[in-house]
Amino acid sequence: MRQKMGWYLFALLFLSGLTLLFASGAKAGSTSVTVTPNAQNATVAVTVSDSELNGKEISVICYAPGIQGAVGDITANKKSLVYMNQYTVNGTVSFSFPVKKQLVQGIYTLVVASEKGQTVNQFRFLQDSSDAPAGTVKPADPKPAPPAVSKSNTKKKLAAPAGVKAKAKGKKKVKVTWKKVKGAKGYLIRTASKKNGKYKVVRTVKGGAKKQVTLTGMKKGKICYIKVSAYRLSGKKKIAGKNSKAVKVKVR
Question: Rounded distance, CA 167 to CA 205, Å?
Fold first, then answer.
């Protein structure tokens, strides 16, 4: 009983802190936020880039479709909460998180708040379909909506990037390089803590000619495995190609 009461107290304090931070950001800040949803594994990859937030705390909260009123009113929208956490921005921070509810049709809302203000980003996991019941999509639906990042397409998959290398560059930073892939519109960077573990997209690099990226906000002293895949576009959807072989690096 004491453990249960302690957990409730922690949750209330966390929510109270987030509510105050969101309430203080009445105007949108200049924080640059990139959001990449992945319907295949129900995750969202986020990159926050703002040199003015170096060493500053941000709060991140994600709502499922159906929120009411202000995005900062966590108590009123608690039934729509799918994720909330806090991070420190060191120039740029990239992270991903799972959506702990069944994916539904409609617009998801991601709010990033700092002492400068807040930004509101909207995205979809699933396209609206008249064949599916409003607000829900069953896995067994014979006509499922296409995912935001799809690996299946009638065209041949893009080749895996060759020459992938990863090197620790300063504290909590890793530089990743690769050779460009013909036909690519950009690249997806995935990481995992084990070579044969579950890889998650932590960065989307736009531009087929790009051949490197620096990951920041990595866990100090940890071993990290990295894979790179090229993607092309089908409308606004990213069609991922084959993954490269995993490369190993120790974060400083």
Answer: 18
Q: How far is CA 164 from the centre of its chain?
A: 22
Establish how many alpha carbons lie within 13 A of residue 73's alpha carbon, considering only the half-sphere containing its beta carbon.
7
Question: 69-126, pLDDT tens digit by residue?
Answer: 788 788 888 888 999 999 998 888 999 999 988 898 899 999 998 888 888 999 998 8
Question: Residue for token digits 């996991």?
Answer: 125
Torsion of CA 89, 198, 110, 49, to 10 degrees: 30
Give the pair of three-digit tokens for residue 194.
Answer: 């084990």
Residue 126: half-sphere exposure toward Cβ, Cα within 13 Å: 26
- The DSSP line for the chain is -HHHHHHHHHHHHHHHHHHHHHHH--S----EEEEEEETTTTEEEEEEE-GGGTTEEEEEEEE-S---S-TT-TTTTGGGEEEEEEEEESSEEEEEEE--S---SS-EEEEEEETTEEEEEEE-SS---TTS-TT---TT-SSPPPPSEES--SSPPPPPPSS-EEEE-STT-EEEE----TT-SEEEEEEESSTTS--EEEEEEE-TT--EEEE-SPPTT-EEEEEEEEEEEETTEEEEEEEPPPEEEE--
| Contact indicator for 39, 149 with CB cutoff of 8 Å | yes
* pTM (2 d.p.): 0.43
